Automatic annotation (TrEMBL):
Domain of life: Eukaryota
The protein's name: F-box domain-containing protein
Residues covered by region (Disordered): 1-24
Gene3D superfamilies, per database record: 1.20.1280.50
PANTHER family associated with the record: FBD DOMAIN-CONTAINING PROTEIN, OS10G0396666 PROTEIN
Matching Pfam families: F-box-like
Residue intervals of the F-box domain: 21-58
């Protein structure tokens, strides 16, 4: 009765003409397959085979395959590894595969994954992405360079035997993929064997990250087997080879981050077309590095720089962007006369003598138009160091500051010993003139007292800027009162003040 009462005031519509023709099924297979390729996974695309006989095999020709593999699938777009095998077996021989994405959530042995890579080597003419999130099944416990592995000797006796780690580690072979244009491999928690022969003739991007051990010669692969490679990234990997030697006429972008290489090893790169290089914590200080490129435009160097071991050959003395940790790379900064954008990751030193040397060496920084500063922590260091930088770079067009949380160790040291790192006379702003400055961006802002003091310090300089942008730290929301207070400080010196959700202008 209640339902009837609720429907009493509704106007009944006349019945429709009945179901119309199935216009979607009348579309060409190629168009339907292009639509199915946008579904969250191939498992979802395969379920459309239940629509009608017409749809039964349409999904087997989609141009992109995507699988999320779980041991016990709980989500509608997930598959088991057996279902993935069946899908690859059912894939049409006449289909053109342009993308294969496989995410494995849970431990999976290398022999289980190898057939999927072989399928890619035979069928793929495009992008391959393989991510292992659960790692490999547990290995024997490591003990230094060896492992203690019990081997059965009869029904009751277990004789401990020492075997080399390399003999016990599972190995996954990467076959030559002649038509692949991009390969991304991540989370390979066993040895990845590179092919000693075979061509990756179409490969333009190769990225390998978080891999326990890379066997084979990466340099040989890039130099001899990838004639069109433009982008190489190695992140969080261990190289079995003692050296990394690359000679490539096509390579344009190289990223090496947390690459473990033997201390007596070398990194040699000759790439005349390379314009982007990132080197971040690769081996120890004794690893020699030689980079030869005349096209270098952007350099990220978070690695101790010793001019006796580390060489940038053929590079111009003026580049577009330089990102480096200051404190251990003074010689690197002297390598360049001018940089359009200079990003300093400043690591403050605890001893007063080291801090004074640190400030003196800032005079050797290359000229720049855009200055980005990261990593300063204590108020005792932050404000005087910023002022010193502003004095030396008075032709700046833009300043970007990323405010890091205070380092308690540095604060406690200064409080115990009395901070004499930078004399108070250098805190004055009377002689700081920035008449070219147009923009200031501040990130990770929380509204803390010392951060507001930094704004006061900045506006104490002789500046007139067009734009000030303040980006708050994650989870922080500034009150309207705080925003108005900051606008009151900024208004005499800038035209526009921007927050995430509010803008002030005059």
């Amino acid at each position: 009765m209640a339902a009837e009462a609720g429907d009493a005031g509704l106007r009944r519509l006349p019945p429709g003409p009945g179901p119309g023709p199935d216009r979607i099924s009348a579309l060409p297979d190629e168009l339907i397959q292009a639509i199915l390729a946008w579904l969250p996974s191939t498992a979802a695309a395969a379920r459309t085979s239940a629509v009608s006989r017409r749809w039964r095999h349409v999904w087997t020709g989609v141009p992109a395959l995507s699988f999320h593999v779980e041991q016990k699938p709980l989500r509608e777009y997930s598959s088991t590894d057996a279902a993935l095998d069946a899908a690859l077996d059912a894939y049409s021989d006449s289909a053109a595969l342009s993308r294969l994405t496989i995410d494995v959530d849970g431990p999976s042995p290398a022999p289980r994954i190898a057939p999927w890579l072989r399928f890619a080597s035979l069928r793929l003419a495009g992008e391959l992405r393989l991510t292992l999130k659960g790692g490999a099944p547990k290995q024997p416990v490591m003990m230094g360079p060896l492992v203690h592995h019990p081997i059965a000797m009869g029904p009751f006796v277990h004789q401990p035997v020492l075997l080399a780690i390399g003999d016990l580690m599972q190995q996954l072979e990467l076959p030559a993929c002649e038509r692949a244009t991009r390969i991304d491999l991540a989370g390979i928690n066993f040895a990845l064997r590179l092919p000693p022969a075979g061509a990756f003739a179409a490969l333009r991007i190769l990225r390998i990250s978080v891999t326990d051990l890379v066997r084979g010669d990466v340099g040989h692969l890039v130099s001899m087997q990838c004639p069109r490679l433009r982008d190489l990234e190695l992140c969080g990997v261990t190289l079995e080879a003692a050296n990394l030697s690359i000679s490539s006429a096509s390579l344009e972008r190289l990223v090496l981050r947390r690459v473990s290489i033997k201390n007596e090893g070398r990194i040699d790169v000759a790439a005349p077309s390379m314009y982007y290089l990132a080197l971040d914590n690769c081996g120890g200080r004794s690893v020699a590095v030689t980079i030869a490129t005349a096209m270098l435009a952007e350099l990220i160097w978070n690695h101790a720089y010793d001019p006796r071991l580390h060489k940038l050959e053929e590079a111009d003395r003026q580049i577009y962007r330089l990102v480096a940790t200051y404190g251990s790379n003074a010689a690197l900064f002297r390598r360049f006369d001018a940089v359009d954008e200079l990003c300093l990751r400043l690591s403050m030193l605890s001893k007063p003598a080291e801090c004074k040397k640190f400030v003196r060496e800032m005079d050797k920084l290359p000229k720049t138009k855009v200055l980005e500063v990261k990593g300063l922590s204590t108020k005792q260091h932050f404000e005087p160091v910023m002022l010193h930088l502003l004095r030396k770079h008075n032709r700046l067009v833009k300043i970007k500051v990323d405010l890091f949380p205070a380092n308690l160790k540095e604060i406690n040291y200064c409080l115990r010993h009395g901070c004499t790192c930078v004399p108070p006379v250098s805190w004055t702003t009377d002689d700081v003139v920035l008449d070219s400055l147009e923009e200031v961006e501040i990130s990770s802002f929380t509204g803390a007292v010392e951060e507001v003091e930094l704004l006061k310090l900045l506006f104490g300089c002789n500046i007139k800027i067009r734009r000030l942008a303040i980006h708050t730290a994650s989870g922080v929301s500034l009150s309207q009162e705080m925003q108005k207070r900051i606008w009151g400080l900024a208004r005499p010196h800038c035209i526009s003040l921007e927050f995430e959700t509010t803008q002030f202008s005059r």
